[in-house]
Amino acid sequence: MTLLLRGGRVIDPSRDLDQTSNLLVVDGKIEAIGLDVEVPLGGEVFDAAGLVVAPGLVDVHTHLREPGAESAETVATGAAAAAAGGFTGICAMPNTDPVTDNQAAVGFIVKQAAAAGGARVYPIGAVSLGQRGDHLAEFGEMVGAGAVALSDDGHPVVSAHLMRTALEYAQTFGIPVADHCEEPTLASGGVMHEGVVSTRLGLKGIPAAAEEIMVARDIILAQLTGGHVHLCHMSTRGSVDLIRRAKEQGVNVSAEACPHHFTLTHDACDGYDTNAKMNPPLREAADVEAIREGLRDGTIDAIATDHAPHDYRAKQREFDDAPFGIIGLETALGLGISELVEPGLLTLPLLIARMSSVPAKLFHLPGGTLARGAPADVVVFDPAGVWTVDAASFRSKSRNTPFAGRALRGRVVRTLVGGRTVFEAPVT
Amino acid sequence: MMPPPLGKDLLGLEHLTAEQIVHLLDTAEPFKEVSERAIKKVPTLRGKTIVNLFFESSTRTRISFEFAEKRLSADTVNVTTTVSSVQKGENLVDTARNLEAMRIDMVVIRHPSSGAAQFLAERINSNVINAGDGTHEHPTQALLDLLTIRDKLGRIDGVKVCICGDILHSRVARSNIWGLTKLGAEVAVCGPRSLLPRGIEDLGVTVFRRIEQAMEWADVLNVLRLQLERMDAGFIPSLREYNRVFGVTEGRMAAAAPELLVLHPGPMNRGVEIDSPVADGPQSVILHQVTNGVAVRMAVLYLLAGGRPELAEQAKAGGTE
């Protein structure tokens, strides 16, 4: 199988490449990039003039709900949503039901992903059995079955001792431990950011300090152990400051931020909109600014979606009782371009780095590069194309997004995984 | 004809204008008199069906609404249900749909979750009156507090009101802050910092750390009930200490200005946030509040049902529109 993407703006942050060129895919691999590269007889030619050709996006933080809540999402629908959003690789968090805390459960995700035929799906194994926070899961066996990282996401690893042990033991396998940073006694019962909006709405707040205390603890434990701690969905200015200082000191820490945290503030909760309820919560304008600056200067390494599908009924309830989380796979690139590139905060190559090459490298995943011989995981998108978010048209099974109706710039045109087309935008 | 002065629902005071609030208070005036008659009934809401939907136990608010409804000749049904937190949301959606199907005209809802009244209002065509949602708002309580202050002081503009106690968990405090500030009162709060919500100053109120300072400053104290479970949750060390440090005690009252008015939304914890001699003393207007509660709720029901404020006098006299 041969495909030539002709005349696009080829951006590969892994090799500092940004030029108008042709990209040739042969047998599922990147064969060549160059203006003089032509397609052999019988190959497909795709006119990419005016479009960007980049390594497929990589999301290190998604929830696919299978097994356990297939009415909200399955591995197959999640992988299809990812492909539609320009992602070629996504990591699935283990807070499924039952929890993905053993090799059989990890193997199940791998099997479902292979059958799905969308984006590649990489399982993340649980840190602790049942994510209960008391006993280490079998990291070695899970890695053997395909796990790429460890996390109790959905819950913090509350015990400092367990977190320390996890960071030490994970070094055997060279994989990161991703932590959901939340000090549980401060966050207890909270449903949104603690601030003037929670005061007005009479909703219990989660103070920024609940996140920052755990960020500080994890940094100290990473320092103690030398292990790689990856901090999930950073949302506060204080967290960004802590990580920046830790990186200056050479601590083995990486961090991600979500599109909603660099786009929305707690004002979005007004009117008790349960689609603005997520954990960590939407914070204040100063936090949004700090996250954006962190993404610019590299304090925040990667953009991750924290894609958290919930079926229609689940969000149709009082704010207190609605579940946390929003879907994000199909809006992430558009939000990145509209909120970070358009205002001039990030260059387009830097945005692609934060959404592709950097996360791939952090989690040691294939992809994130257009180097010759690499798997042809490629996204083609129209950086100027404006579209309106219509949740009903999502590939995801769920519709819980606060961005419905929002006009976004940056439209995915085609997504390739291993050279195979897994998404192609309907012709408009 | 003038447009109705309220929308479909009364969910809170935050989004009302000063004019709308004054309208509500003015409309309550003629209804006060109905409750003083031998035959306490006018036909204003004859044929209207009202459901009092209480997901949280409440005696006085429910009874006050029920008297208001009955004195306006509405047909009323009380639904009192306590719900487990797991079933809560499903129940509310389903309840809304069932009520709608029964063609009721108005719902008075009390619910433990903030935003529940709005949730219901967005899903049914009937008028919805918030009788207290979580720690969000309790608009009719604030309206009766405003009416009481206006009765006693002749004005609200420029009056100094301090709301004392557990502001963090109080819907009464929030509704009072909105209502009072919109009508030009100076508003302060006083309580342990652990029971004051973050950013409270941004709502336009002053914070007093000590009750003595608050009592020296204020023309009116609105003393909130201290929920006894706050002690178990670690917000304060003990009720005894709370009374010592923050209580409106007989001794502190003796040192305060003789005109200082004392309000309390009830039910009181005598000897905790307020001492009995204060609650029963000459500066207490607590029972006046209860009386005004019925009039204010009659006014709310009347206006939401489409009644025009200028015709409230006639409604009182027994005329219908």
Question: Which descriptors would you attach to this protein?
Answer:
heterodimer, A: 428 residues, alpha/beta, 8-stranded mixed β-sheet, 8-stranded parallel β-sheet, 12 helices, 18 strands, 23% strand, B: 321 residues, 5-stranded parallel β-sheet, 13 helices, 40% helix, globular
Describe the model.
The complex is a heterodimer of chains A (428) and B (321). Chain A has 12 helices and 18 strands. With 428 residues, chain A is of the alpha/beta class. In chain A, the strands form 3 sheets. In chain A, strands 1, 2, 3, 4, 5, 16, 17 and 18 form an 8-stranded mixed β-sheet that branches. Chain A has an 8-stranded parallel β-sheet with strand order 6-7-8-9-10-13-14-15. Chain A has a two-stranded parallel ribbon with strand order 11-12. In chain A, helix 2 (103-116) runs parallel beside helix 3, helix 7 (208-225) runs parallel beside helix 8 and helix 8 (237-248) packs parallel to helix 9 (285-297). The longest helix of chain A has 18 residues, at 208-225. Chain B is α/β, with parallel strands linked by helices and 321 residues long. Helices cover 40% and strands 14% of the residues of chain B. Chain B has helices spanning 18-34, 60-71, 88-101, 116-121, 139-153, 171-182, 211-217, 229-232, 239-246, 250-255, 276-279, 286-304, 312-316, and strands spanning 49-54, 75-80, 106-111, 127-133, 160-164, 186-190, 206-208, 220-223, 261-263. In chain B, helix 2 links the parallel strand 1 (49-54) and strand 2. The radius of gyration of chain B is 19 Å and the shape is globular. The A-B interface holds A 194-196, 198-205, 207, 271-272, 313, 316-322 and B 14, 85, 88-90, 92-93, 111, 113-116, 118-119, 133-137, 171, 174, 197-200, 202-203.
Task: Offer a quick outline of the entry.
The complex is a heterodimer of chains A (about 425) and B (about 325). Chain A is an alpha/beta fold and about 425 residues long.
Architecture blueprint of SSEs:
The complex is a heterodimer of chains A (428) and B (321).
Chain A: E1 2-12, E2 17-26, E3 29-33, E4 44-47, E5 52-55, E6 57-62, H1 75-84, E7 87-92, H2 103-116, E8 120-125, H3 139-145, E9 149-151, H4 160-169, E10 177-179, H5 184-187, E11 192-193, H6 196-201, E12 205-206, H7 208-225, E13 229-231, H8 237-248, E14 253-257, H9 285-297, E15 302-303, H10 312-315, H11 332-341, H12 348-362, E16 378-388, E17 407-417, E18 420-424
Parallel strand pairs in A: 1-4, 1-5, 6-7, 7-8, 8-9, 9-10, 10-13, 11-12, 13-14, 14-15
Antiparallel strand pairs in A: 1-2, 2-3, 5-16, 16-17, 17-18
Helix pairs in contact in A: 1-2, 2-3, 4-7, 7-8, 8-9
Chain B: H1 18-34, E1 49-54, H2 60-71, E2 75-80, H3 88-101, E3 106-111, H4 116-121, E4 127-133, H5 139-153, E5 160-164, H6 171-182, E6 186-190, E7 206-208, H7 211-217, E8 220-223, H8 229-232, H9 239-246, H10 250-255, E9 261-263, H11 276-279, H12 286-304, H13 312-316
Parallel strand pairs in B: 1-2, 1-3, 3-4, 5-6, 5-8, 6-7, 8-9
Helix pairs in contact in B: 1-5, 1-12, 2-12, 5-6, 5-12
